[in-house]
Specification:
By secondary structure, the protein is mostly helical. It has three helices and no strands. 0% of the residues are buried.
């Protein structure tokens, strides 16, 4: 019960607090960020390729059905 009262007392962090947290995260994880972003970009590209492959399969299946 005390935990819910504690969180209600502080509320959501403001813009300055979020900026400070982001700065600390950048200082702590700054050297890993380029590789992390590179990996995230590759993941998005692979996901898009997979979605495109599924869309191509659906289109080809639809064309095969319409040809019959």
């Amino acid at each position: 019960m005390m935990n819910s009262h504690l969180f209600g007392m502080f509320g959501m962090p403001g813009h300055l607090e979020l900026l400070i947290i982001a700065g600390l995260a950048l200082l702590l994880f700054g050297h890993r960020l380029p590789s992390l972003m590179r990996s995230a970009g590759r993941s998005v590209v692979e996901f898009k390729k997979g979605v495109q492959g599924i869309e191509d399969d659906i289109e080809s299946a639809g064309k095969d059905k319409s040809d019959e």
